[in-house]
Recover the amino acids of this structure.
């Protein structure tokens, strides 16, 4: 079974270059989403909203890149009529940039909510739990981009495990928030804000997993969406 | 002797129209096809692809014994049409070639009228000699090939006056006039423009309702569009046979992948 796909080596070197270009753009786009999360994390660590400036600008860049990459994928489909692995690369990429774009939107939401919480002197009790979650999601996103860059399935499966940890952490954050709300009804409004932020972070994890599934499809030619994690693991081992 | 090469995918079928086992072809002492096992499904389109010189035409010619016409060419192995050995001495080659018709890369109409091109085969194969029946047959075949409207007022003009695409469709009309069971096509569209190509492809699709079609093509997109199964040849070996949808999205063999993605030519 293939575990890594090699691109390049086409008779048309120009085609190789076009594919390389697309792949490096996707990574660039992903790094912009990472940057959004990083800014949020810094703000939480320093308990200051200062670092969360320019997040919306980053997100606009992410949106532009999505359109650009989509356009390039369309061009390649029209000009090169790619087949097999090349075709799967284009399909997987054009799906993955949608997920990255949506992850970018969620990251922007999180940043704004954290900013608001910090500016409004929301009790740190409420949002301090987010820090671990942001860290974990950032790690997952980073690992996902790495998986996409290397086009291999083993790490894709590993990332699914990271996402399970994200889900568990999300559950703990929510549980804690509910406890706080139960004891302090004045906190409900602020707590709900934090809850939405947590929810967005959890969604980013899901987008990462979609990307990993795309990479598995790309490498193996198998569609593993809507397949239980255990089955995927068995299938690929 | 080296170990026998194993084709990947699904080269064999249940109840095939043609069955090929262990086929090898030699030109003098140079081997061009190596131990091919392949079944060709009834009323299906199968395409043969592969780099130039890999043996597609040679293989195709085995299926109606056209290789017999090449002196230095020798075919080994078992080839069956409906379970009947086509190399059997009792087989009449002329009749075999009527049952397994062929369309070539370059349209090659006879230097006769459009009408005669279609009627000729039917007449010599003794299908009919009756004027009314022949008229009927000619119209029917030209209709099926989408040529009738274009030529009905000039049926008795020379076929060579038709455009390339029209000539190729005429050759297909000529091939189906003798009511073959299998039609072999060796790059039938390589001399045609995109519109004529699309018409011929549409025709192939229609014909596959009633005929078994094997098509050799250099256009990957054409193979993807017209055929249900695709066979990939490389240096005389049958590397992979699979459903066309699989071959073009997720081929099993590395060589197939390299060829269809344009890494080997
Ligand atoms: N009449 C012949 N005499 C000698 N060798 C031949 C003859 N016809 C074909 N060959 C050789 O047999 C091999 C297969 O040729 P064939 O024509 O079957 O390839 P092909 O796949 O149809 O190529 P193309 O895509 O260029 O039409 C080649 O090495 C070719 O040189
Ligand atoms: Mg040929």
């Amino acid at each position: 079974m293939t575990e890594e796909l090699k691109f390049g080596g086409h008779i048309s070197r120009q085609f190789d270059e076009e594919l390389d270009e697309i792949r490096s753009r996707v990574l660039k786009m992903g790094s912009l989403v990472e940057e959004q999360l990083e800014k949020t994390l810094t703000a939480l660590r320093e308990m200051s909203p200062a670092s969360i400036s320019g997040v919306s600008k980053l997100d606009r860049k992410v949106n532009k890149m999505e359109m650009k990459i989509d356009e390039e994928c369309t061009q390649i489909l029209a000009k090169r009529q790619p087949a097999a692995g090349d075709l799967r690369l284009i399909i997987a990429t054009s799906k993955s940039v949608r997920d990255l774009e949506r992850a970018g939107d969620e990251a922007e939401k999180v940043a704004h909510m954290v900013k608001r919480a910090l500016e409004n002197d929301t009790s740190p009790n409420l949002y301090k739990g987010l820090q671990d979650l942001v860290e974990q999601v950032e790690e997952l996103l980073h690992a996902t981009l790495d998986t996409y860059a290397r086009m291999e399935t083993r790490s894709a499966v590993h990332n699914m495990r990271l996402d399970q940890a994200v889900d568990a952490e999300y559950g703990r954050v929510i549980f804690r928030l509910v406890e706080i709300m139960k004891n302090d009804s004045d906190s409900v409004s602020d707590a709900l804000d934090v809850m939405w932020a947590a929810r967005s972070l959890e969604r980013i994890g899901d987008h990462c997993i979609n990307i990993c599934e795309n990479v598995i499809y790309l490498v193996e030619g198998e569609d593993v969406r809507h397949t239980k994690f255990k089955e995927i693991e068995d299938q690929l081992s | 002797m080296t170990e026998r090469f194993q084709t990947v995918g699904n080269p064999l079928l249940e109840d095939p129209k043609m069955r090929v086992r262990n086929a090898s072809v030699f030109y003098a002492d140079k081997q061009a096809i190596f131990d091919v096992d392949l079944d060709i499904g009834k009323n299906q389109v199968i395409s043969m692809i592969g780099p130039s010189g890999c043996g597609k035409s040679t293989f195709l010619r085995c299926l109606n014994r056209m290789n017999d016409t090449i002196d230095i060419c020798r075919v080994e192995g078992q080839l069956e049409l409906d379970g009947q050995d086509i190399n059997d001495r009792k087989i009449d080659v002329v009749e075999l070639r009527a049952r397994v018709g062929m369309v070539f890369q370059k349209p090659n109409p006879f230097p006769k009228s459009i009408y005669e091109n279609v009627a000729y085969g039917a007449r010599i194969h003794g299908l009919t000699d009756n004027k009314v029946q022949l008229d009927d047959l000619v119209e029917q075949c030209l209709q099926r090939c989408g040529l009738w409207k274009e030529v009905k007022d000039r049926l008795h003009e020379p076929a060579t006056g038709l455009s390339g695409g029209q000539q190729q469709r005429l050759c297909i009309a000529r091939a189906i006039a003798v009511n073959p069971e299998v039609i072999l096509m060796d790059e039938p569209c390589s001399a045609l423009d995109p519109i004529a190509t699309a018409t011929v492809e549409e025709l192939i699709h229609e014909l596959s309702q009633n005929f078994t079609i094997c098509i050799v093509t250099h256009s990957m997109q054409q193979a993807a569009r017209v055929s249900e199964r695709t066979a990939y040849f490389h240096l005389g070996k049958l590397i992979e046979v699979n459903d066309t949808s699989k071959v073009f999205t997720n081929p099993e063999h590395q060589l197939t992948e390299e060829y269809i993605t344009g890494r080997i030519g």
